Amino acid sequence: MAAIHDLVEAMERAPRAVRFADLQRVCQHYFGPPRRSSGSHEIYRTPWPGDPRVNIQNDRGRAKAYQVRQVLAAIRKLEDVQ
């Protein structure tokens, strides 16, 4: 099982090749359990005001590339806040 840091690095290198399960693990590590899970979507809460959520979607076992990039941006923002 890959470490979270390794998964994030792989996501940065190839956002189109990310498994949904790996994106879930990364989101749960940084943002906690999903606030809501309905069907193929999971919504994670972020600690800043404005649009305080990250939405990911299962696309036949893969994560959508634009959502991977949004998660990476949220992680960068989270690390800047801390």
Question: Can you give a write-up of this model?
Answer:
With 82 residues, the protein is an alpha+beta fold. Helix content is 48%, strand content 21%. The protein is built from 3 helices and 4 strands; from the N terminus they run ααββββα. It has helices at 4-13, 20-31, 65-81, and strands at 36-38, 41-45, 53-59, 62-63. It has a 4-stranded antiparallel beta sheet. A hairpin with a 2-residue loop joins β1 and β2 (41-45). The protein is globular and about 30 Å long. The termini are far apart. The mean pLDDT is 90.
Report the β-strand fraction as a percent range.
15-25%
Category from helices, strands and their pairing: alpha+beta
Main sheet properties: 4 strands, antiparallel
Counting DSSP H or I runs of 4 or more residues, the number of helices is: 3
Mean pLDDT: 90
Helix content range:
40-55%
Distance between the termini: 27 Å
Shape: globular
DSSP summary, beta strand count: 4
* Unreliable stretches covering 5 or more consecutive residues: none
**Topology as a string of helices (H) and strands (E):** HHEEEEH
